Give the backbone structure.
Amino acid sequence: MHSIIELPRPSLLVSVRSSKEAADAVAGGVDILDVKEPSAGSLGAAAAAVCCEVATVVGNQLPWTMACGELADGADKLHTHLAMTWTCLEAASDAGQLAPLPVAVKVGLAGCAGTIWRHDLEAVAASLPAGVRQVLVIYADAANCGAPAPDEVLDAARDLAAAGVLVDTYDKQAAGLLGLRRVAELQDWQQRASAAGCAFAVAGKLKIEEFPALQPVNADIIAVRSAVCSQERTGPVEPMRVRQARQALVRSPVSVSSFSIDRFVPEKRSR
């Protein structure tokens, strides 16, 4: 069953590592949930069972996405993780639980500059279930982590009809997004992503007090983790901090429009 979800622009995405964090983020008013394991890197993949648990918490309340690690760690590893996740979600559905598929998956491109990464992402796209699409990732610190240049990723997002483009940082111990890139650069990338029909998301150690500086970018999604955790990105998500982040976006003058996401929700099966 397909449904169109209208979301405010910008929407707040919070990355969670457990069903408890997912429930806390929902209680705080998050718009989109993302599942990742922060101890495993910028886009560290959470276990398939964790992704499934989060999906059952989310149900049909809001869309969710999942981080799948770095492509350089091996295409076979990536495809195995995806297959295990789909199996877990199907088993939950067979057991009578509402376990929707993610609307999108994200794969990091650190170490992929000069490789056939576009071919590998085409293979990922071809393997995804109906309703699940890819978000391509620009690393703001691409030169330091061996990732493809932003122009290359934007061209690939257009050619592969990606659901979106995410700008993030690979090294979470270094500077955040606004310490690495100028707002004018982000504006240009947003315009190119929008022209290609892609949603545009920004992340990378963003702080709530930095939200006003991001207004000119006109991003569809502001993605955070450390800003809503009690102990940086490895600490637990706190509902109060999520609420503060959401309120900061609501006060933003650019929060007057919306964008849509196509979501596929499998019908709940009875035993």
Q: What stands out?
A: The chain has a mean pLDDT of 92. Residues 2-264 form a domain with the TIM Barrel fold (CATH 3.20.20.70). The first strand starts at residue 2 and ends at 9. Residues 173 and 205 are 9 Å apart (CA to CA).
